[in-house]
Amino acid sequence: MSARINASASEMLEPPAPATCGRTITVVAGPFAPDSSTLTLAARTLTLGDSAILWLATRDSLGNTLGQGGRAVVFSRRRGRPAPASGIIRGFVDHQDGRYSAWYVADSAGAADTVTASVDGTSAHLRPAPAVTVICSAGAPSPATSRSR
Hints:
- Helix content is 3%, strand content 38%.
- The chain has 1 helix and 9 strands; from the N terminus they run αβββββββββ.
- The strands form 2 sheets. Strands 2, 4, 7, 8 and 9 form a 5-stranded mixed β-sheet that branches.
- The longest helix has 5 residues, at 9-13.
- The radius of gyration is 25 Å and the shape is elongated.
């Protein structure tokens, strides 16, 4: 038994149009859920003077991005022990889509700083909280500042 298909090559390569039922479903995010939100730090180790971007994605309890900005977000750091690193958080941006960012700038070397965030006065329960360690780098050798013994 044989069958013949009457279709051009271009018709065979194009996928069929998706079926539609004429209805649109819109997902509306619920209220802010600290346990579902995420805070990420672009680097875990920085050389003195370097910086890394912090990103906070605010989400509801089902993990949906809140989708709009305007919240009171505060990024902060807890100093490490025994000899704490020092960093500055600056350059806050509300991206107006439920995401917020800032820069962590490494100011002095030491034990890891832990970075935290709060939204509308509620601490985001980020586990584990991102930490950054600042290290000193010797840099490239320089004949002008090097001596032989």
